[in-house]
Amino acid sequence: MVDRPNKPTAIPVGSSTAVPAPQVDISSDNSSVTATLPSGDSVTVLLFGATVTSWKSAGGKKENLWLSEKAILDGSKPVRGGIPLVFPVFGPPPSDHATSSLPQHGFARNSRWEFLGKSTSESAGKGSAGDDSVTLDFGLGSSNLSDSAKQAWPFNFGLVYSVTLVKDVLTTNMTVRNEGTKPFECQVLFHSYLKVDDIANTTVSGLDSIEYVDKVNGASTQTETNKAVTLTGETDRVYKALKPEAKVVVKENGKPLYEVGRDNLDDVVVWNPWAEKAGGMGDFAPKDGYKQMICIESGAVSGWQKLDGGDSFEGAQIIKSVL
Ligand SMILES: O=P(O)(O)OC[C@H]1O[C@@H](O)[C@H](O)[C@@H](O)[C@@H]1O
Q1: Domains in the chain, start-ordered, CATH in brackets?
Q2: Can you tell me the distance from the alpha carbon of 184 to that of 305, in angstroms, rounded to the nearest whole number?
Q3: Which parts of the chain register pLDDT below 70?
Q4: Among residues 105, 191, 252, 259, which one is catalytic?
Q5: 105 has catalytic annotation
Q6: What does this protein do (predicted)?
Q7: Is the peptide bond before 22 cis (omega within 30 degrees of 0)?
Q8: Strand, coil or helix: what is 60?
């Protein structure tokens, strides 16, 4: 059980509270929670992995996240699409590290999280409807882990994951706390699958002059020379040490589609499996779906966050959907 100061109102899973407009509507069942703003913008979070599986903006008309048609949502496999969470290790764990027995990307996306509750702020009568907001909080601690994950990573930790929706903006914030006395090292990342119309017309800006590790090219270190990065084949790059204020902008036909900002997260992964890799993934559909997605993943993954007993680390990703 994860606790946090100023704990929000707890909503028992399985309950459903429908409140009349213009208030924020929250509905939940045994497997997911959906929050809808009076504007129609909405977000859905699956308790399995605390995976955001849908984020709609433009009053509910525009889905911003790509979700595979064959994504497995029953908890037997991480979700292919949406925003899976990466913790406490990014990628395959190094053999000489305390995470070495964990699966790729760790256990956060493979574990069932607790819904801790919601907090809302409604502007009805006070100002613009664009000020409405809702935050959904989820928790995962050592006691929620499977025995095998506990054995593979025997540390006492608490995660609080907050998903905040305001008109056209989704913020995901993770706080990691070492609840024990043994220090541990961890990595955190938001593996966001952003939806695009056509990858052939998509560019990514804000990465010019940034050093990156090119994982499809023997993990070589390169420096980005393009103002507008295009993807023309399998792409798997870890851009490192971005300036805190630097935004990564996904454009389609030259027009901004998403602006991705970060708080206390210095790295950005750009990933697209392309045709062959997507073809080899049983849960990736349709097979040419790689043309409709680009992963822009904010995280702290090129080093380790070392947390002594009682220490915390907090980082956030802020995605603005631009019409
Ligand atoms: O198939 P998975 O485990 O969800 O990982 C997908 C991709 O996730 C990315 O973050 C990694 O950089 C890639 O190397 C990896 O292939």
Answers
A1: 25-321 (2.70.98.10)
A2: 8
A3: 1-22, 124-130
A4: 191
A5: no
A6: Catalyzes the interconversion between the alpha and beta anomers from at least three hexose 6-phosphate sugars (Glc6P, Gal6P, and Man6P).
A7: yes
A8: helix
